Structure formats: structure tokens, C-alpha cells
Structure prediction request, 186 residues.
Amino acid sequence: MIDVGEVRKGLTIELDGELYSVVDFEHIKMGRGGALARLKLRSVRSGFSFERTFPASEKFRRVFLERRKAQFLYREDNLYTFMDNETFEQYQLSSDQLGDAAPYLKEGLVIELSMHSDQAIGIELAISIEYKVAETDPGFKGDTANAGTKPAILETGLKVNVPLFVKVGDVIRIDTRTGGYQARVS
Prediction:
């Protein structure tokens, strides 16, 4: 059991028999009375997010997740299929379970699969991933109306702003935490 003061972003806790990931945490000290903690939680199974306030005396059961290396195989409708690199077992996750990670997935990408009781419940991406630019407008020298950037669509359909010198076919590195351009690889 952990106290409210020990709760941090990214931690997985059990609340009312369900698993929740802490998306955001805010400690509130009242002028009179006890302290409170406002947590933004996301259901690990359904992806549903909500905010809830707890008194400082609240305790939670911390859930430890097993991490396994897995490879993204394919997407079929709303389901994404992954294969464990060691056991070759396949797991499916919905786009709700993947959340913001879904647009970053491309076939063959190696990720970390979060497991609880032998069930896949989510994924963790590498901090930076390389993608090929599928579509972008040509950049013209001196065209700095957009602070020297232009929109580009990557091979996965993800839209990002890139510098003017990036062209179709270039491979670029994207930060998966912010969705921002980092560097041109080739």
C-alpha cells in the first residue's frame, strides 16, 4: 500500500478492483483542514479518463506490471496485434488501450508490452523513433512565415511540423513524448 504523497505520474494503482494509470497528479494544501490530492486517472483496460480528489490519508494498492519486448505486427480495424519476441505469443490491444501511442506504430516496430496477470494492458514506446516522410510541400528559401517549418505526413499517417529542408522520402527522428521533430537521419 502506498500513500497519496507517494503517487507519481505513470504509476499504476488499483482502485475499486480496477487498474488505473496516473496521468496527472496535483497536491493541494488547503488553508484550513487537511491536504488533498487531485489525480487524473486512465483506466488501463478501457482507456476511459477521469479526475478524482482524495484526502491525504487515502492509501492505494500499487500494481507492478511486467514489461516484455514485443513487435508490432499489424492493425485490423480497431485492434492492434503484437508478438512477444521471446515466446512468439500474439496479443491484441484496442486503440483505446493504446491511447496516444497508436499513431506512432509502424509494422516491425519493437516496443515494450505492459503485462498484468498474463494479459497485455498497454505499451511503452521508445523515446525517439525514425519514420519516412510520405508527404510534404516543397520548402522555398526565405519562406519563414511559419517559423521555418512546414507540415508533413509520415508513413504511419502521423502529421508533424518539420523544417523547410525536409523533403518526401527523407527519414526523420520524432520524439514520441511530444510528437515533435528531432533530426533528419537521411
